[in-house]
């Protein structure tokens, strides 16, 4: 919401549409050097986010050795992160707080901004559940968690995100003070629906994620102590190998979860603060970019902590995946 503009007190350079006078919204005027720097940084992050997540999508989709339930959940997260790279493009257009595209594109952008983060949060919840079962109930993991169930869970996650968030946006109510000027791209959500959304898409999933991962690391720590003290004697060497593998995956994905929460919480703290109406546009943009930056950081975590991902990147960049039978390569 922007206050009415006194056209006599505002220069043409401060208006999104100078020829519309009082009907136009104000734009944020920055020094040229600052604007250029912001455009370069955000464009670079957008390209990097799209490229890195595309590598993850290609790797998991192409190599059959990676067709595991956990990796299909990572694939869902990579797809949502890939879409965030395109959200960055729209945010770059909004750097001066002016929307120059059509209302249809504004609606597309608004829906994308709601569905994609919700699907991303849902994917993180599924990953937490997967790691919880793998570490806390390893004997029944392969019967409870299968590739088909992982695929169905991912499809259900995206379907529910789309269905819920399309119902969340209320296009029928447009108060007079809502669209106060031309050059805005905002979506009206009823305050009651907004607090319901806060509970269903932030408080509840974040609570589930934290509870499950606290349990995972408690069990992992107890098993590590048992192994070091030789209290637990494991007869099947194969089961020991699988257990260590699952624990390592839990640690890697634990880093993903912690980074996700660190990027997520500042955004919602700013949005739902009682004094949020007093928060500057710049502050809101910064916490939004931090939230979206998480999508660029996830593939970087894989690069440093997953040897198989580094090997996949070499296969892809060297175009070896175009060779016949490359999908059967033992990249693990």
TrEMBL record:
GO terms for cellular component: plasma membrane. It is a multi-pass membrane protein. Coiled coil: none annotated. SUPFAM superfamilies: Family A G protein-coupled receptor-like. GO terms for molecular function: trace-amine receptor activity. Keywords: Cell membrane, G-protein coupled receptor, Membrane, Receptor, Transducer, Transmembrane, Transmembrane helix. The keyword Heme does not apply. Its main location: membrane. Residues 52-302 form the G-protein coupled receptors family 1 profile domain. The keyword rRNA-binding does not apply. The chain crosses the membrane at residues 36-60, 72-95, 107-129, 150-169, 198-218, 249-269, 289-309. It is found in: Cell membrane. InterPro entries: GPCR_Rhodpsn, GPCR_Rhodpsn_7TM, TAAR. Belongs to the G-protein coupled receptor 1 family. This is G-protein coupled receptors family 1 profile domain-containing protein.
């Amino acid at each position: 919401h922007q206050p009415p503009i006194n056209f006599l007190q505002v220069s043409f350079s401060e208006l999104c549409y100078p020829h519309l006078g009082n009907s136009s919204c104000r734009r944020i005027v920055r020094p040229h050097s600052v604007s250029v720097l912001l455009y370069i940084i955000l464009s670079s992050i957008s390209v990097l986010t799209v490229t890195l997540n595309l590598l993850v999508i290609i790797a998991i989709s192409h190599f059959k050795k990676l067709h595991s339930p956990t990796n299909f959940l990572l694939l869902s997260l990579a797809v949502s992160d890939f879409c965030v790279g395109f959200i960055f493009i729209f945010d770059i257009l909004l750097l001066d707080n002016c929307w120059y595209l059509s209302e249809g594109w504004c609606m597309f952008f608004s829906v994308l901004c709601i569905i994609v983060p919700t699907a991303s949060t849902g994917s993180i919840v599924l990953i937490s559940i997967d790691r919880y079962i793998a570490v806390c109930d390893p004997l029944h993991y392969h019967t409870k968690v299968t590739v088909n169930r992982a695929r169905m869970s991912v499809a259900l996650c995206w379907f529910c995100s789309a269905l819920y968030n399309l119902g969340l946006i209320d296009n029928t109510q447009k108060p007079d003070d809502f669209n106060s000027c031309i050059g805005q791209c905002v979506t009206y959500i009823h305050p009651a629906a907004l607090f319901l959304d806060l509970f269903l898409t932030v408080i509840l999933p974040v609570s589930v994620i934290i509870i499950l991962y606290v349990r995972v690391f408690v069990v992992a720590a107890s098993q590590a102590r048992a192994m070091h003290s030789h209290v637990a004697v494991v007869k099947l060497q194969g089961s020991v190998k699988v257990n260590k593998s699952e624990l390592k995956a839990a640690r890697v994905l634990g880093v993903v979860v912690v980074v996700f929460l660190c990027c997520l919480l500042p955004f919602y703290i700013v949005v739902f603060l009682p004094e949020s109406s007093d928060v500057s546009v710049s502050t809101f943009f910064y916490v939004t970019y931090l939230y979206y930056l998480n999508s660029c950081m996830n593939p970087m975590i894989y690069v440093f902590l997953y040897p198989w991902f580094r090997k996949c990147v070499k296969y892809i960049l060297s175009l070896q995946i175009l060779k016949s039978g490359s999908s059967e390569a033992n990249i693990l």
